[in-house]
Amino acid sequence: MTTMNQTRAPVPAMLRTIAGLSLTAILLPSCDESGPRIYTAQPYLAALGCLSAYTPISLVETHDVSALCEPVCLRIGAALYVSTLCAPYPGESTLPPASDPECAAALAAPSCGDLAADAAAP
């Protein structure tokens, strides 16, 4: 019986090793946090004087996207957006200065949802 135990002992150790290596192979790629991230911003609706809900506008290549920055204006084509997401900004966007009249209005604009809620209040 001791011979059987001696031949069986390496098998569980080998299985643990294989299982550990397999788990490491699965988890290692998921530890890399770099890659494309969705950049979101609020479209400025100049005719209504408010900011629409956050919407995805582009992908940015970064490790993480933080929403703890000061609001900035981003222009993509003719559209103006406001976002509190930190750099990097979408490559296709330009950042008008805060002194730009339309950007200043967008930065001061309330959420369109807040305007709707105020209009519905008695």
Provide structural commentary.
With 122 residues, the protein is α+β, with helices and mostly antiparallel strands. The chain has 2 domains: 2-31; 35-120, no CATH class. Helix content is 38%, strand content 25%. The protein has helices at residues 2-8, 10-31, 101-108, 112-120; strands at residues 35-45, 50-51, 55-62, 72-76, 79-83. Strands 1, 2, 3, 4 and 5 form a 5-stranded antiparallel sheet that branches. A hairpin with a 4-residue loop joins strand 1 (35-45) and strand 2 (50-51). The longest helix has 22 residues, at 10-31.
Describe the secondary-structure layout.
Layout: H1 2-8, H2 10-31, E1 35-45, E2 50-51, E3 55-62, E4 72-76, E5 79-83, H3 101-108, H4 112-120
Antiparallel strand pairs: 1-2, 1-3, 1-5, 4-5
Task: Please provide a brief summary of the model.
With 122 residues, this protein is of the alpha+beta class. It is built from four helices and five strands; from the N terminus they run H-H-E-E-E-E-E-H-H. The longest helix has 22 residues, at 10-31.
